[in-house]
């Protein structure tokens, strides 16, 4: 692929020497426009990153949750969690805000598995995060959640159980 791109580029450069109008074409159509924004603080950078993440059509829940937590910690002395999320990021529901912050408390092993599997359900991740299960049991619950074979109510009830065995689900 690299050889092909280099060949195409070399042909283009050769053709440009023979055809001066290509210079004009290049200056009009082959430019990449960019915007440079000067950031003056870590808080401002964090706000921009979180805003960009939330603006996506299907944001990755775990990354959004962790970014919200980090952003709140940077602004800790200013607004409360709910006011900050509502004002800056347009999240109106206090329930949604609390779900994101609870998800941000998940253990590293769980976060790694979520990223591996690309699991992206706000409510199910919230149920896993608020459960008082062991890490191994939460991993089993996450595996079950990613199969998406049960209703949300059944999943919620299962997350409240004291013990989850991976053998139960096979």
Task: Give a written overview of the molecule.
By secondary structure, the chain is an all-alpha fold. 66% of the residues lie in helices and 0% in strands. It contains 10 helices and no strands. α4 crosses α6 (94-103). The radius of gyration is 24 Å and the shape is elongated.
Give the key terms.
170 residues; 10 helices; mainly alpha; disordered C terminus; single chain
How do the helices and strands line up, and which of them pair or pack?
Layout: H1 2-18, H2 21-29, H3 42-55, H4 61-74, H5 81-89, H6 94-103, H7 108-117, H8 122-130, H9 135-147, H10 152-159
Mean pLDDT: 77
What is the terminal-to-terminal distance?
A: 44 Å
Strand content: under 5%
Structural class: mainly alpha
Measured as a percent range, the helix fraction is 55-70%
Shape: elongated
Q: Calculate Rg over CA atoms.
A: 24 Å
> What is the N-to-C succession of helices and strands?
HHHHHHHHHH
Unreliable spans: 166-170
User: Helix segment count?
Assistant: 10
What can be said about this structure in brief?
The chain is mostly helical and 170 residues long. 66% of the residues lie in helices and 0% in strands.
């Amino acid at each position: 692929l690299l050889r092909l791109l280099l060949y195409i580029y070399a042909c283009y450069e050769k053709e440009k020497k023979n055809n001066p109008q290509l210079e004009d074409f290049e200056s009009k159509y082959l430019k990449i426009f960019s915007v440079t924004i000067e950031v003056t603080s870590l808080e401002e950078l964090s706000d921009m990153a979180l805003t960009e993440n939330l603006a996506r059509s299907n944001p990755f829940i775990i990354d959004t949750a962790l970014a919200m937590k980090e952003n709140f910690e940077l602004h800790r002395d200013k607004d409360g969690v709910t006011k900050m999320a509502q004002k800056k990021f347009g999240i109106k529901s206090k329930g949604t805000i609390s779900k994101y912050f609870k998800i941000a408390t998940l253990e590293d092993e769980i976060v790694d598995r979520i990223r591996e599997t690309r699991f992206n359900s706000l409510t199910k991740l919230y149920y896993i995060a608020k459960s008082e299960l062991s890490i191994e049991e939460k991993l089993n619950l996450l595996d079950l959640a990613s199969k998406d074979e049960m209703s949300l109510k059944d999943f919620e009830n299962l997350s409240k159980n004291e013990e989850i065995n991976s053998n139960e689900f096979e």
